[in-house]
Amino acid sequence: MPRTIDQRTLNRTTLDRQLLLARSAMPPLSAVERLVALQAQDPNLPYYGLWSRLTGFRQKQLTDLLHDRSVVRSSILRGTQHVAAADDFRYIRPLVQRSMLGARQAAFGRVTKDWDLDELAARTRELLAGRTLTRPQLARALAEIWPGRDLQALGWSAQALVPVVHPPPSGTWNTWGATPFALPEDWIGEPPQTDPTPDRLIHRYLAAFGPASVKDFQMWSGMRRMDADFDRLRPDLRVYHDENGVELFDLPDAALVEDAPAPIRFLPDLDNLLLAYADRTRVMTAEQRAIICVGAWVKATVLVDGRTHGIWNLKHDRKARHAALTIETFAPLPDEPSVREEAGALLRFAAPDSDHEIRITPLR
Question: Taking the model in full, what pTM does it have?
Answer without folding.
Answer: 0.96
